[in-house]
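Below is a filled-in request sheet from our internal design queue. Each sheet records the structural input a requester submitted and the sequence that came back. We keep these sheets so that new team members can see what a complete request looks like end to end.

REQUESTER: design group, bay 2
PRIORITY: normal
MODE: inverse folding
CHAIN LENGTH: 166
BACKBONE (tokenized):
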């Protein structure tokens, strides 16, 4: 059995917020991060969706967590399962504003964060398939600025790691 976590970033929909109102925010891409190991981002930044529309990334990536080559990632998964109070038990998705070509003095700016708890996937014994997760405003963690549709298939890898912990 191949030990990996499969991640798919399907689409993004924004609610009315400071993000939709901000004209300097035009193009968006999404980064996915597992703790400090790995950051992957959608190769495309897409025009900011308006009026409740979705932008579709349909981007998939794989995090390998096999023993041979990916020891650090595997140890991290172990720590998630063994330490119930570990705060960083989530895959973190960051919605990033990509400055327009003619505004190169502007930085990429993190505008929102979304999380998928790997621990919950294991506790519920259920992968997350094409699920809408809340995107929280980077400036106000209580404000939801949109929904990111993601798939995270981690259960078989987590089970395998858990077996090893016993």
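RETURNED SEQUENCE:
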């Amino acid at each position: 059995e191949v030990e990996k976590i499969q991640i798919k970033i399907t689409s993004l929909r924004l609610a009315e917020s400071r993000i939709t109102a901000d004209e300097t925010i035009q193009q968006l891409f999404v980064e996915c991060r597992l703790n400090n190991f790995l950051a992957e981002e959608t190769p495309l930044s897409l025009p900011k969706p308006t009026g409740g529309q979705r932008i579709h990334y349909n981007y998939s990536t794989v995090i390998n967590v096999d023993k041979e080559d990916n020891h650090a990632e595997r140890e991290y998964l172990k720590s998630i399962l063994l330490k119930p109070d570990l705060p960083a038990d989530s895959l973190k998705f960051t919605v990033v504003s990509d400055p327009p070509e003619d505004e190169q003095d502007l930085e990429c700016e993190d505008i929102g964060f979304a999380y998928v708890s790997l621990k919950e996937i294991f506790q519920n014994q259920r992968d997350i398939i094409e699920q809408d997760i809340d995107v929280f405003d980077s400036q106000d963690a209580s404000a939801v600025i949109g929904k990111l549709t993601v798939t995270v298939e981690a259960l078989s890898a987590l089970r395998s790691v858990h077996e090893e912990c016993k």
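SHEET NOTES:
- The chain has a mean pLDDT of 91.
- The longest helix spans residues 71-82.
FILED BY: M.R.
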